[in-house]
Structures are given as structure tokens and as C-alpha cells.
Specification:
The structure is a single chain. By secondary structure, this protein is α/β, with parallel strands linked by helices. Helix content is 43%, strand content 15%. It has 15 helices and ten strands. Strands 1-2-10-7-8-9 form a six-stranded mixed beta sheet, with helices on both faces. The chain has a four-stranded parallel beta sheet with strand order 5-4-3-6, with helices on both faces. It is globular. It starts with 13 loop residues before the first helix and ends in a 5-residue tail after the last helix.
């Protein structure tokens, strides 16, 4: 974190995000920025919720995937793409590939939510399962891409992916202004850091006074710890969380320099706080939210966001959750 970021370390610029916004505009959904009186009352401040569950494939991942795949030439498109993902990037890549007529192969953990695996296959992608605790998804995907001459599409550590995700930041600024909200901070869920890095790049260029925070589940707070130490920290091998979309083992090599320079800090929530947020989203906001998508909302509901006189925007990043798991969480009353 720095008041004077070293732009030479940045994988992308605000101009890259603006270019991504122009490219994806005909294909992507401009998702709503929602305000709810009960949420405002609970938090004691104005809160705006960017709901990416309304995006194609049910999460923000379509933005970066389309921005990457749409830039492939004819030969690269014919050779196909290979990606790795616990589910949301998988679906985003699969949907973008289907729109663009590109063969897609996705390396997914064998224990990924069944709905994410099924949806990825339904979109026409080949799914290659792996054990997330004993195998390297990156090694498997890289080997497949090399074997097939395909283009590798990382889940977060790619300039076009980061820039595509950053289009959320541009929309938040525009929609908040239209709503007459003076934003002071933005809370963004964080796995490998692509979404928050892209968002911060867009936001801080236009409004350097707005503080952007990464939000992670407990046990997977590698970005929060890395922001403090100044080096890329790793997750303990035995760490577990219900937030399947945010289980990256460490910050990205491209995303971390951006986040270290631009973010105000990292915030952490427990799985129980995430469950509470999912229930609140269902009962009060009338939104279906997956665990990883609920972490920023969980921060607000638990009173963990830094105090501010201005409004807070938060990103709900996805809505892809298995019906059985969702029912079990929603059906359980708060203790």
C-alpha cells in the first residue's frame, strides 16, 4: 500500500480497463447497483450493492473471459482455449467461448459445486477434473494447452482478465453518481486478486479519494497478510472454507503489485459470518448469493468495515451455489 504507486509495476492501466469496457459492452450485462433501506439502517450508512449474480454465467468472471477471448486471432480461436477454475471462471470462459465459437477445456476441482461443473459442461466446454489438495491445476492446464496448441486463460493473473474485471469499477462509479451517492469506500471479494486489482485500477485513477479494500474468508487471508508484509504470502495447506470461489493459494504475481500499491487494506470474515450474509441477502435483499460472493456483504453486516462519512459500495461477485448447500444455509436460523 502506497500513496505514490509505482506505475512501472502495474500489469494494466486505467486506459486498459476503459478499452475492455468498450470491447465487452455489446456482450456483457451492465449489472445493477442496488440500495436497500434495511441494509442502510443495519449498517448506519448508505450502502450500494453491485450484484454480479445478474451477469452472464452468474458471476463477474464473464467480463475478463470475454475481454481475453475476443482478442484471439482466427488461428488461436480454432486451436481453442484451456483454463482452470473452481467454477465461476470456468463458466465465464465457457460462455464467452460459446459466443465466439471457440473450443474450451476447463480444469476443475473434483469437489467443485456440482452446479458449477454441470453448467460448464452445458455451455459446451470439456471438463477435466483434478484433486485440489494433491494436484496442481496450473500444471495440468499448462500441459493440456501445450499438447493442443491452445491458449491458456488464467483465472486472474492475466492483463486482459484483470482489465475486464475492472469494468465493474467503472460501472460502480457511474451508477453511484447517478444515484447521488458520494462514495468513500468500495469492498471487493478477493481470491487471486484479479477483480479487486482491476476495480482498484479503474476507481483510483478517477477517484483517488475512494478507499478500496480486499475481502477474504478466514484461513485464506493471504492478500490481507501480503498487504501487511509487502511480499506474497501463502495459504496453509490444511486451510478450508465454504467460499469455494476464493480459495487461491496465494496472491497473483501480476495482481499483487497492483493491490499492494492501490488498496487501503484487507478485511477478513468467518464462514459463519458468510452464512449470515447469505441469509440476509435471501430474506432482505431477495438475492441468491454464493458463499464467496457474500464476503463483502458479510463485512458490512458484521460491522467490520472501516468507519466513513461517505457511502460504501460492495461487490456481490456471484450467485452460483448448489441448491442443497444453499437450502441448508438458508434454512438454518441465526443463532
Amino acid at each position: 500500500m502506497s500513496d505514490s504507486p509505482d506505475l512501472s509495476l502495474m500489469a494494466i492501466t486505467a486506459a486498459d480497463v476503459a478499452d475492455a469496457a468498450r470491447l465487452i459492452a455489446p456482450a456483457a450485462v451492465r449489472t445493477p447497483l442496488i440500495e436497500n433501506a434495511a441494509l442502510n439502517d443495519h449498517c448506519g450508512r448508505r450502502v450500494l450493492v453491485k450484484f454480479e449474480g445478474a451477469q452472464h454465467s452468474g458471476s463477474f468472471k464473464f467480463r475478463g473471459a470475454y475481454n481475453r477471448l475476443a482478442r484471439l486471432n482466427a488461428a488461436e480461436r480454432a486451436a481453442g482455449v484451456v483454463a482452470w477454475s473452481s467454477g465461476n471462471h470456468a463458466q465465464g470462459v465457457a460462455f464467452a467461448a460459446r459466443l465466439l465459437g471457440i473450443p474450451a477445456t476447463i480444469v476443475m476441482p473434483a469437489d467443485a459445486p456440482a452446479i458449477k461443473t454441470a453448467n460448464t459442461r452445458a455451455l459446451g466446454a470439456e471438463v477435466v477434473p483434478y484433486d485440489r489438495f494433491t494436484q496442481s491445476r496450473e500444471e495440468i492446464a499448462t500441459a493440456l494447452a501445450t499438447e493442443r496448441g491452445a491458449t491458456l486463460v488464467p483465472s486472474f493473473d492475466d492483463p486482459f482478465i484483470i482489465a475486464g474485471q475492472g469494468t465493474i469499477g467503472l460501472e460502480i462509479l457511474d451508477q453511484a453518481q447517478a444515484a447521488g451517492a458520494d462514495l468513500a469506500q468500495i469492498l471487493v471479494c478477493c481470491g487471486g486478486g484479479g477483480l479487486v486489482a482491476g476495480t482498484a485500477t479503474a476507481v483510483k485513477a478517477a477517484r483517488p479519494d475512494i478507499s478500496v479494500y480486499a475481502v477474504e474468508p478466514a484461513g485464506f487471508d493471504d492478500t490481507a497478510r501480503s498487504l501487511t508484509s509487502g511480499v506474497r504470502e501463502s495459504v496453509a495447506p490444511d486451510a478450508r472454507s465454504i467460499c469455494d470461489a476464493l480459495l487461491a493459494p496465494s496472491p497473483g504475481a501480476l495482481t499483487f503489485p497492483i493491490n499492494h500499491a492501490l488498496l487501503a487494506g484487507g478485511l477478513v470474515v468467518s464462514d459463519d459470518q458468510v452464512r449470515d450474509a447469505m441469509r440476509f441477502a435471501f430474506t432482505t435483499l431477495k438475492l441468491v448469493v454464493e458463499p464467496g460472493g457474500a464476503v463483502a456483504l458479510a463485512v458490512m453486516l458484521a460491522g467490520l468495515a472501516p468507519p466513513t462519512d461517505g457511502a460504501t459500495a460492495l461487490v456481490i461477485s456471484g450467485a452460483n451455489v448448489d441448491p442443497q448447500d444453499y437450502a441448508a444455509i438458508i434454512g438454518r436460523q441465526n443463532a
